[in-house]
Specification:
Blueprint lengths: L4 E2 L60 H4 L29 H8 L5 H14 L7 E11 L2 E10 L6 H7 L19 H9 E12 L2 E10 H6 L9 E5 L4 E4 L5 H14 L5 H6 L8 E9 L9 E2 L8 E2 L2 H6 L5 H8 L1 H4 L4 H7 L9 E4 L2 E2 L9 E9 L12 E8 L8 E6 L2 E7 L12 E6 L16 H21 L10 H17 L29 H24 L1
Parallel strand pairs: 1-7, 2-11, 15-17
Antiparallel strand pairs: 2-3, 3-8, 4-5, 4-8, 5-6, 6-7, 9-10, 11-12, 13-14, 14-17, 15-16
Protein name: Morc S5 domain-containing protein
Pfam family, one: Morc6_S5
Family: Belongs to the MORC ATPase protein family.
């Protein structure tokens, strides 16, 4: 679709920001991304362990900004002055207002930045039903307050949003997603996720509804609201009708209000010229949505939370503990840190590879220009077993059954275990450990299941603590014990109670030998002892496979002996 050019018949009026309820209410929505330039190259001493790429220079802050105002967990502490209460129109009802601080407190539901990014990916995945074929996630450089800085971008080719949908999306708690297959349902994910990642977000969306093609721009700027002392959430938005040869502004009240919204967007977004603003639609195509999140949050050290320079094909979370541990690490630690169960904590590419249970047929997640390869750990299990669980749902609810694939994980440290629990195809709890800490039972046992019968929490990183959840947890514990009892010997472990059985067996053998007459002999077939006693110094020369085979043989002989005792 050729780019639309706006007619130059509208002049921008220099007036204060509009408070019109139709054009400025509360927040914005989904995805965005365009391909940013790669400026920094990979600087990692090991391909498996992320390292800090030398000294990191904190970004320059504007004169009226402090580190606290740019650190997410402190950004809600600013002091605002007294504000005047607007007079009510005659006959109008007073309405509840939302203070800008609520945007910050609402976003704290995301403790983990990757959880916020996943919310925006979910929005694109939900657009598959409207023809979406990709979601691009990337980093670009922008200039704000005369200082360059990174911005996070998302771009999809879904159905897009018309002016009505964009305003509904920017309203708190509204959701039009009522399908059993869509991931989003609370109408809050966009607001919490964008504000968790950065202080400001601008949304561009194109859509065609009922034969009318439109493009819209919406700005949610915590920086604007805070610096101008607003006591209500104001979101300037502008819309265009692009059905013809020109991008015609859609006017809801007056030209002055439309121009005021445009002026606010140009002043507080990375695009100070109207021409630059409209150019952002060029890579969207005839339909889709693009989001740019800027003024990204800093950590307590004044460094960006998200690291873009450690790997130019990934986005990572800065991990101070891991960076310190790389100076001197044990072999076991290195093995653990190289496994995906650990890497998904700091690598967006690793996390995105496991984020959705079923592989897409005609949809891709493209992270910094490279497609993410989807990965299901159930395909990598040794001695897999499928266990069916039928949860006790509420009376009147449709009965359901859940299939859980469980097995031993391949070539991994023994302390990796747990269940990857999905809800409507989306990963909610990765490697959920249900076994007791310190117990050898369940070491290396991993399971995968989709639990659509329980509801996820609002941040989609856990489940609501309902009775169904508690019963599921107990069933998974039982599942681990049952699988371990029947399969642990295949990995060289002694089954539960094996030591007691062996001790009892040896005691019986001793009693039998003491009751023999003088010079009597016992049938060697009744003696369950190894044919060869290996000296302790030679144990190191025995391979793991040999130990596993000996354990299997010993286990089978003990079971056979126990059966004989039951019959006598």
């Amino acid at each position: 679709m050729p780019p639309k050019v706006e007619k130059e018949h509208l002049n921008v009026v220099d007036i204060a920001s509009s408070d019109d309820d139709g054009d400025a209410q509360t927040v914005a929505r989904k995805k965005a991304s365009s391909l940013g330039e790669r400026q920094l190259r990979r600087n990692i001493s090991s391909p498996e362990i992320p390292q800090s790429s030398g000294s990191i220079t904190p970004p320059a802050l504007p004169s009226d900004e402090t580190l606290d105002s740019r650190s997410f967990w402190k950004a809600g502490n600013y002091v605002f002055g007294p504000t005047s209460k607007p007079a009510l129109l005659e006959g109008a009802l007073e309405h509840a207002r939302v203070h800008p601080k609520f945007l910050h407190s609402n976003a704290t539901s995301h403790k983990w930045a990757f959880g916020a990014i996943a919310e925006l990916m979910d929005n694109a995945v939900d657009e598959i039903q409207h023809g979406a074929t990709f979601i691009k996630v990337d980093k670009i450089d922008i200039k704000m307050d005369n200082s360059p800085g990174p911005a996070l971008l998302f771009l999809d080719d879904g159905g897009g949003m018309d002016p009505v949908l964009l305003r509904k999306c920017m309203s708190l708690g509204y959701s039009s997603k009522k399908s059993n297959t869509t991931i989003g349902q609370y109408g809050n994910g966009f607001k919490t996720s964008t504000m968790r990642l950065g202080a400001d977000v601008i949304v561009f969306s194109r859509s065609t509804r009922a034969g009318k093609a439109t493009q819209s721009v919406g700005l949610l700027s915590y920086t604007f609201l805070r610096r101008t002392g607003q006591d209500d959430v104001i979101v300037p938005m502008i819309d265009f009708d692009i059905s013809g040869h020109w991008a015609e502004p859609i006017i809801y009240s007056t030209h002055d209000d439309w121009s005021s919204n445009l002026k606010t967007i140009l002043e507080w977004s990375p695009f100070s010229l109207k021409e630059d603003l409209l150019l952002q639609f060029d890579d969207i195509g005839p339909h889709g949505t693009k989001i740019i999140i800027y003024n990204l949050w800093l950590n307590d050290e004044g460094i960006y939370e998200l690291a873009f320079d450690d790997d130019d094909e990934d986005i990572r979370l800065r991990d101070e503990a891991l960076r310190e541990a790389t100076t001197k690490v044990l072999k076991k630690t290195v093995e653990l840190q190289s496994h995906i169960s650990y890497r998904l904590r700091y690598s967006l590419r690793a996390y995105a590879s496991m984020l959705y249970l079923r592989k897409f047929n005609n949809f891709q997640i493209i992270l910094r220009g490279k497609p993410v390869q989807q990965f299901n750990i159930a395909d990598e299990l040794q001695y897999p077993k499928v266990v069916t669980y039928k949860p006790q749902v509420a009376a009147g609810s449709k009965e359901c059954s859940v299939e859980t694939t469980i097995g031993f994980i391949k070539e991994t440290p023994t302390n990796v275990s747990g269940f990857n629990v999905y809800h409507k195809n989306r990963l909610i709890r990765p490697f959920w450990k249900v076994k007791s800490d310190g117990s050898v039972i369940g070491n290396g046992v991993v399971g995968v299941l989709e639990a659509d019968f329980i509801e996820p929490a609002h941040d989609k990183q856990d489940f609501e603590r309902s009775s169904l959840f508690v019963r599921l947890e107990n069933r998974l514990k039982q599942m681990v014990h049952e699988y371990w009892k029947g399969h642990c010997y295949l990995m060289g472990y002694q089954p539960p109670g094996f030591a007691a059985k062996q001790k009892k067996l040896l005691a019986n053998q001793h009693n039998n030998s003491s009751n023999l007459p003088a010079g009597g002999k016992q049938d060697s077939r009744d003696l369950d002892v190894p044919d060869v006693v290996m000296p302790e110094g030679d144990l190191a020369s025995i391979s793991v496979d040999q130990l596993c085979e000996e354990n299997i043989q010993l286990f089978m002989r003990c079971e056979e002996k126990a059966q004989k005792e039951k019959l006598t």
